[in-house]
Amino acid sequence: MRAVLLAAGLGSRLKPLTDTVPKCLAPICGRPLLAYWLDALLGDAQMERVLVNTHHLAGVVEQFVRSSPWSGRIDLAHEPRLLGTAGTLNAHRDWIGGEAVFVAHADNFTDADPLRLIDAHRRAAPDVVASLFAFRTPTPRSCGILELDARNHVVAFHEKVQDPPGNLANGAVYVFEPDVLARIAALGCAVCDLSTEVIPGLLPRVLAVEHTGVFMDIGTPAALAEAQSALRSARTGLAVARRPESA
Which of 30, 114, 144, 202 is the most exposed place for a label (fewest CB within 10 A)? Predict the structure, then answer.
């Protein structure tokens, strides 16, 4: 399996840090966030290759990747204009190669094991075309909130609404079957978003796998500090954290 790490975010809420440091390289206990993801996917999960998209401070990300011990299995894709999360996948359908693909927002910090999601997806009912990690959030208005049926299939998806019907949130970590990529291509849009333009059309063929450990977007200084505290407390971050440490 191959993986796509969506790493092109501007990180506006993390300024002034992101004036010089891309959001995906925000440091957590002395290591860039992207390092944790690469260790998890190319080490523990043994992905064939990982594609990392870039935009803001692309040269800094490229330099980091070139110095990574995994550099020979990482492909970079620069986006002069942001394509949106679904647009990036559509632009790289040939690279993905017609098989299931692991996709993650690389500005998330988590101790969830990618293999747990992959294994659950492989065991899922034949009608499932996508699987995602879900988590309980203390701020449901700022997240995409899920409603599930008895099989843990997503039957409703509420993206950042004022009155969310619960606190089970989409973690923006996915496994997609080729049918999902075909659906994105059929939209015919160069710039499009997974949460608003793709996921709702897949229901109820999306499996949710709840993770009860650490799961957070490090998009604000407070969230970044919380991630550092969580990692220090756990002494294991992402499945990544087992490699040396680390969404």
Answer: 30
pLDDT on residue 45: 87
Cβ neighbours of 233 (radius 10 Å): 9
In-domain check, residue 13: yes
Q: Which residues contact 96 (CB under 8 A, 6 or more apart)?
A: 2, 4, 89, 181
| CATH number of the domain to which 48 belongs | 3.90.550.10
Q: Can you read off the two tokens belonging to residue 134? A: 């879900």
User: In the chain, which residues have pLDDT < 50?
Assistant: 236-247
User: Does residue 247 lie in a domain region?
Assistant: no
Backbone angles phi, psi at 51, to 5 degrees: -105, 130
Question: CA-CA distance, 240 to 35, in Å (whole number)?
Answer: 8
* 86 to 28, 39, 123, 170, 196: CA distances (angstroms): 27, 24, 25, 16, 10
Query: Long-range CB contacts (< 8 A, 24+ apart) of 234-238?
Result: 234/111, 236/111, 237/28, 237/29, 237/36, 237/109, 237/111, 238/36, 238/37, 238/39, 238/40, 238/109, 238/110, 238/111, 238/112, 238/113
Q: How many domains does the chain have?
A: 1
Residue 144: inside a domain, yes or no? Answer: yes
- Give the list of residues 6+ apart from residue 57 with CB closer than 8 angstroms, or none: 18, 20, 21, 22
Give the number of other Cβ atoms within 10 Å of residue 50's Cβ. 24
pLDDT for residue 242: 34
Are the C-beta atoms of 194 and 88 separated by less than 8 Å?
no
44 lies in some domain: yes
Q: What is the pLDDT of residue 247?
A: 28
Question: 135 in helix, strand or coil?
Answer: strand
| DSSP for residue 227 | H
What span, in angstroms and rounded, lies between the C-alpha atoms of 61 and 188? 30
